[in-house]
Amino acid sequence: MNESAEMQELADGVAFWRTKRNWPADFQFKVVQDLWVATEDSARASLVTELTSLIESTRQQVVSEFPMTNKIVELRLIGQQHPGMGG
In angstroms, what CA-CA distances link 62 with 21, 27, 47? Predict the structure, then answer.
């Protein structure tokens, strides 16, 4: 497993509490979908803009296949489960 795959697994595990239970993919999809739908349109736009800016500040480009919604929701879940991880 390469470093980026390990980082992805860590993010998913932290976000979806896999240390306690291995949540099924359909449950994870439903959580992401429900949280995104519950987010106001203006907040969605701001979050996408901010994450895009953060990525581009590392001299990387956001490709069209980048799972922006999933990453934003994962970060939200991580923040809820581990509030001390923020900057």
Answer: 32, 27, 14
Phi (first) and psi of residue 76, to 5 degrees: -65, -45
Q: Is the pTM of this model over 0.85?
A: no
For residue 19 the two structure tokens come to 């240390």
pLDDT digits (tens, 9 = 90+) for 44-82: 999 999 999 999 999 999 998 888 888 898 888 878 777
7: CB partners within 8 A, 6+ apart: none
Q: Give the CA distances from residue 73 to residues 1, 7, 61, 69, 76, in Å, rounded to whole numbers and listed in that order.
A: 24, 16, 20, 6, 5
Q: Tokens 């349109």 label which residue?
A: 41
